[in-house]
Every structure is written in structure tokens, then in C-alpha cells.
Design brief:
Two copies of one chain form a homodimer. Helix content of chain A is 26%, strand content 25%. By secondary structure, chain A is an alpha/beta fold. Chain A folds into two domains: 94 residues, Sandwich (Immunoglobulin-like), CATH 2.60.40.10; 260 residues, Rossmann fold (3-Layer(aba) Sandwich). In chain A, the strands form three sheets. In chain A, strands 11-12-14-13-15-16-17-18 form an eight-stranded mixed β-sheet, with helices on both faces. In chain A, strands 3, 4, 7, 8, 9 and 10 form a six-stranded antiparallel β-sheet that branches. In chain A, a hairpin with a 2-residue loop joins strand 9 and strand 10. The first copy, chain A, is globular. At the A-B interface, helix 1, strand 8, strand 11, helix 4 and helix 9 of A face helix 1, strand 8, strand 11, helix 4 and helix 9 of B.
């Protein structure tokens, strides 16, 4: 019986504790954030996170009871990953929900943006986000995708819908667009306002290796030819496995005029790589903060290759005939946050300029004041969706 | 440009790192587990977790490079929560996926059970798990439930299905049954083997408070009358909000003969509280390791009340007329793990015995060798589902 009290305590563990967001983190009116961690025995605690939190890491101060805290300068609005560094170890905040980023579960905080309600859950009809397991011959594994079906999908069993394939960034996974990005609410709100056409959105996991092979390990110095090898396997998943499964499982409009692909950061790179190679399958293309990597056969890393963007040769000469491209591709959307590092702004902005100069029709949108973070990509999606399938 | 290398490194963060389970934890053939944590500056690291890991906490040993490790005694098969204690702070393992338990994201490890494939993802048709947002008048909030729809649901637009409402335990949430419990695969496998009838399964969040009120904070010493107050609000959510939404949104068979409720631990308590009060709505009832709490008007805590189980008066005299109960309720399923604490075994086993002695038809199943953990509840679900809607 010695476990009795503990067992019942566990059984009926504080219901209030079970509610994320109730705990120690506080956002002040100026958007400064106070982080706290109860760690009486720790010697040093810091907090750090995404660019929108400011420079960081911020050293925390211990009070007499052993609770460490710090208040950051005003943060940029939007979703920011963050973590504690507890005696040298990067750990999640027990008071935060967890979000898959940086290749692992990571804490996150939502800093409200005044007047921005386009990603809020509102009193409008809501679609569903469905966990869809499918077998990939390319990788020899069961894979999980999430599929947004719009409001009314089940009630209109003869209606068919266009499809957007929407990819996360490096270190994230197929949960990112709905958990961090709130894509389902952006869609619900746009559809309710008749600003976007009801559509199906498919969010897959952007990592793939052939059976028996290890996933390619990539960092900033990896030659682009190795990046290409990794993307090629994922291309097989999308083109040979996922699209046929989606067209067989849902009431899609299964033609290129009703199929789009977009992604953020690495997902934007993948989108350009895959969609520009398969213009017979996609008429709408979006790259949100996706670095321009025109020459994936290069033995050089990305930082070098991006500088050599040439609209005539880039992406296997997909843009070489601008008139043909313009008549075939209904939308090429490029964007970046104005507070992103020079590498992204210069590369993406430069490519957008060169494409325009070459006569390639594209949309280029800068998100004002936001970094290489989710607020940039929520805004991108909110701008991108109304332009689809018109 | 100083951020360039770091930014690209972040952008193209190791793809292999993005795959959970690839990291430091190893399960040995004898089911002992080696846990590791890289923490050169830490002074003390322990690992602890669910009962199936053994007594714990286990002190870890630092090697020359600052990596701490320990190998536990052989674990019980199944899913176990675990966590590190890093210089006195409970933290998640960065190498683990996160699972909502203990009121927060928690690490978890899956220890294989030899010969148990009923919860594996198999080469059978798979249902979908849908994220369903609905408005609750009871709580004045948008709530999220997960809804399993069986294979073929979309292909058979005139077929209607029975519905099981299935609840998680204390400290967990609506993700528990699919993430930890693998309920969708148990269903897929049983349905493919024609051992269970295709059905819809609804998994809601077992916490509810009226608008403007705080969630009731409960621990093992909370008087049962306060537990009842909390459960009553959740009862309103299920009966007044969720069931109508499910019947309006999905092709259900919306009558008591095709509606079941079950839950684990706290969810079992809630099931008995709600379903036994609404026998006009539920014909099938399951409580998996759910403590028997017959007298929720009591000012006493659970440990006291459970001892006073009397089939004639318990649950507002729901069992007082055994013949009437037996003709009305198609299934009353009670179960517990043989390795659970005495509190659970004695209370649940005792109630099952008293019910049988009183002439109440019930099924009572003990799970051999498993604790108050998910392996007990996977087995319970696998036993329970084939008995439904026959």
C-alpha cells in the first residue's frame, strides 16, 4: 500500500496542470516575455529561441526559492521556438506544449499580433485534418501525411476539389503546418470569407530514403549534389506514391490545373525542385523563404550555388522560354521576411528580380518585419491561397 | 553575413536527426534499456519513468566526455513514459518523441512485446484519425476531439456506423489513445480480421470547466464531491455538445444500441459516472483500470469511498435491479493489470466480484504482468472492441 497516495495523486493529477499555457511564461503588453524555470539546484540557466525573440541567449536569475527568470526585450509577434539551457543542456520548458522543430520536440510561444485574426480559430465552419497512413514503394515504409479537407467535404459527396501539397522546413515534420502554422484555421477563415476556393491540402514529411539506406545527413557545408540525392527520393514519394494515393482516396480534381505545391524554407527548395521538374503535374508553385538553389548538381554547398542564379539555365532551364512558362504556370510565388538574414533576402529577392527582368511572370512578396519564422510563412500562405485555382 | 553559416546549418539541419528514435536510447535483448544524455556540465543525472521500467529512479554515470548513461533492469513490454532528472529538474529526453502525459509533454519508449502484433501498423486497410474542432456551449470554447473513421468510410457513403467514445487518463489528453495507445492500428487490425465491427471512435479531452471558471484542481486528497463537480461539466460536454456534433457530422447509427463509452483510469471513472447516468444513451460500457468510485457525493477522497462499494446503492443504484440492468446493458467490461497497485486491483476486482454475486452480468479481465500503463489498456481495448455492437 505504500504507493497508494502517489498512485492516486498520479491518477487524479491536477487537471489544471493538464492545460498547456497555464504555467509560468508571461507575455507583457510591450511583448517582452518573462520566462521562468524552477531549478533550485541548477548553477546556470539561460533561455534562447527563434530570431523573433531577439538576440539571446538570455541569462536567467535565481530567486531565493530557486526559481530562475528573465524578461526579454519586446518580441516580434508570431510563433517562436524556444528552449532553456540548463547547466549546459538544451531542454524543453515543461510549461510549454511541444512542437517538432530542430529535429526534436521543442517548446514554443505564441506572441499575439495586434489585429491579426486570420489564423485564429473563429466562429466559421471548420474543415478536418486527417491523419492518413500510406505505403510508399519508394521508401518501403508506412508514411504519415496530414490531409486537410474543407468544410462541407462530407456533406457534398459529389463535389471534387483542387489539391495543394504543402511542405514544412528543415528539422520540422508533417505536424508543422497545422501545429505551428495554424494552416487549417487560415484555410477555414479564407474559405468562409470566400477569399479562397475550398481545397484539399496535403502535408507530408519531407524526409525520405530508399529501403535499406540511411537518410542523407545534411548541413550547410553539404555539397548540393548530395542535397539533390535526398530531394530526389522525396520527389519519388510525392510523384509516384503520394499523389496517386491522394487522388484515389479523396475526391480530387486530378489534373495539373487543379494541383499546387508550396513549402517553407527547405520545403520551398523541395517545391522548386519537384514542381519545376513536373510542370505536367503542377500549375501553381509557391516557395516561402526557400533559398534559390538552381544548380543541384553542384559539388559546392548552397551558399555558393545561390549566387549563380541565371534564369536561362536555372532549374534545368525551366524558365528558358518565359512565354511558354507564363502560359503554362498559373502562379509562381516567391517571398521572404524583411527581417530574414541577408542570405535569404538577397538570394530570393535577387532571383525574383532576375526572373522579372527575363520576362517570367512571378509574384514576389516581402513580409514586413518578420524573420525566418512561422509568422512569415503564415502571411505567405494567407497571401498565396487566394491566388490558387482561379 | 555573420549568421550565414549558422542559418544554412539550421536550414538544412541534419535530416537524420529529424527522425525520432535514431538517437541514444537502446533496448537490449533482455529488455534492459540504456539511457544516455550528453551533459558535460551537469552534477547529477537520473532517469525515471512509468512502473514498467522498474523501481527507479536510476542514477546515471558520467563518462570522460560528459555523456551520462545507465542501463536499467529488464523492463516490462509496452509503452513507458520516462524523464531525466537533470540537476534536480525533471526534463524530457531530446532524443525522444514527446507524448502528452503527467500534464505536459513527456518522453516515451516503446519496449516490444514478443509475438504481440495487434497494435502494429500492418499491411491492412487503414482508417483515418480526424482532428475535429467543435464549439462547446457547456464550456464556451472551441474543443478538439479526434475521430477515427474506419477503412472504407469514404467509399461507402450510405453506410452508417456505431460509435465508441474513448477517454484517456489523468494528465493525458485527446492525443493519448492514438499516440501512446495506437488505438487506430488496433482497430485497423481487428476490422481487417473481421474480429471487430467497423466503427467510429471519438476521443475527446477529459477536462472541462464552465465559462469563466477555472478547471477544478484535483489530487489524491480532493474530496470526491469536487471530483464529481468536475466530471459533471465533462458530462455536459459529452452528452449535450459532443454526441450531437458527432451524430450531425458523421454517418453514425445514433441510438443507444450502437453507442459505447470506455476509458482508462480517470477516463474509466468518467465512463462509469457518465454512462451509468445515461443508460438511455449507451448500451456498452468499459472501464480499463478505472477506480470504482460509487459515491461521488462523498466529502471523502477516493481511497475511502472505494472501500464502500455496494452493488445495491452504487452509482445512484444503477445496478439495484440486476435483471433489468442485464437486459438493458449489452456489455459492462471491467479490467485491471495484475501488476497494478493493490488499490486498483482490490477495488476493481472486488467490485467485479460483488457485481457478479449480485447477479449483474459483467466481463472482468486481468492483464497478466502489466502495470497501470498503456500495455494494460491496449490489451483491454483489444479485448473490448470485438464484444461491441454484436
Amino acid at each position: 500500500m505504500k504507493h497508494l497516495a502517489a498512485t492516486i495523486a498520479l491518477l487524479l493529477l491536477s487537471l489544471s496542470k493538464a492545460v498547456p499555457g497555464a504555467a509560468g511564461t508571461r507575455i507583457h503588453p510591450d511583448l517582452g516575455i518573462t520566462f521562468t524555470l524552477n531549478a533550485p539546484e541548477a548553477r546556470a540557466v539561460q533561455v534562447a529561441g527563434g530570431d523573433g525573440l531577439g538576440a539571446g541567449p538570455y541569462s536567467m536569475t535565481r530567486d531565493a526559492e530557486g526559481v530562475w527568470s528573465v524578461t526579454t526585450p519586446p518580441a516580434v509577434p508570431g510563433f517562436h521556438y524556444y528552449w532553456f539551457v540548463l547547466d549546459g543542456v538544451v531542454v524543453s520548458d515543461p510549461a510549454s506544449d511541444s512542437f517538432f522543430g530542430y529535429g526534436k520536440p521543442t517548446s514554443g510561444i505564441e506572441v499575439p499580433e495586434a489585429g491579426a485574426d486570420y489564423y485564429a480559430i473563429s466562429q466559421v465552419p471548420h474543415g478536418e485534418v486527417r491523419e492518413k497512413w500510406y505505403w510508399s514503394k519508394t521508401t518501403g515504409e508506412w508514411r504519415r501525411a496530414f490531409v486537410y479537407t474543407p468544410p462541407g467535404y462530407d456533406k457534398n459527396p459529389r463535389t471534387r476539389y483542387p489539391v495543394l501539397f504543402l511542405q514544412h522546413g528543415a528539422g520540422e515534420n508533417e505536424t508543422g503546418w497545422t501545429r505551428q502554422g495554424r494552416a487549417q484555421f487560415i484555410l477555414d477563415n479564407l474559405i468562409a470569407a470566400r477569399k479562397a476556393r475550398p481545397m484539399i491540402v496535403v502535408m507530408d514529411r519531407g524526409y525520405a530514403a530508399r529501403p535499406g539506406q540511411e537518410l542523407v545527413s545534411i548541413d550547410g557545408n553539404t555539397p548540393l549534389e548530395r542535397v539533390k540525392a535526398a530531394f530526389s527520393v522525396f520527389e519519388g514519394v510525392i510523384v509516384q506514391d503520394l499523389i496517386p494515393v491522394i487522388d484515389a482516396s479523396y475526391r480530387t480534381l486530378p489534373d495539373r490545373g487543379h494541383r499546387a505545391m508550396a513549402g517553407l524554407s527547405m520545403g520551398g527548395m523541395q517545391t522548386l525542385f519537384i514542381a519545376l521538374h513536373h510542370l505536367d503535374m503542377f500549375a501553381y508553385i509557391g516557395s516561402f523563404s526557400g533559398p534559390i538553389a538552381p544548380d543541384l548538381d553542384s559539388p559546392q554547398p548552397l551558399s555558393h550555388a545561390q549566387k549563380r542564379f541565371d534564369p536561362l539555365t536555372a532549374y534545368d532551364a525551366a524558365f528558358a522560354n518565359p512565354a511558354a512558362f507564363n502560359s503554362r504556370v498559373k502562379l509562381l510565388w516567391l517571398g521572404v521576411g524583411s527581417a530574414e538574414p541577408e542570405f535569404f533576402r538577397a538570394g530570393i529577392g535577387g532571383a525574383a528580380e532576375a526572373l522579372q527582368a527575363a520576362g517570367v511572370r512571378r509574384v514576389y512578396v516581402e513580409s514586413n518585419g518578420t524573420a525566418h519564422e512561422w509568422q512569415t510563412w503564415r502571411r505567405a500562405l494567407n497571401d498565396f491561397l487566394p491566388r490558387l485555382f482561379r
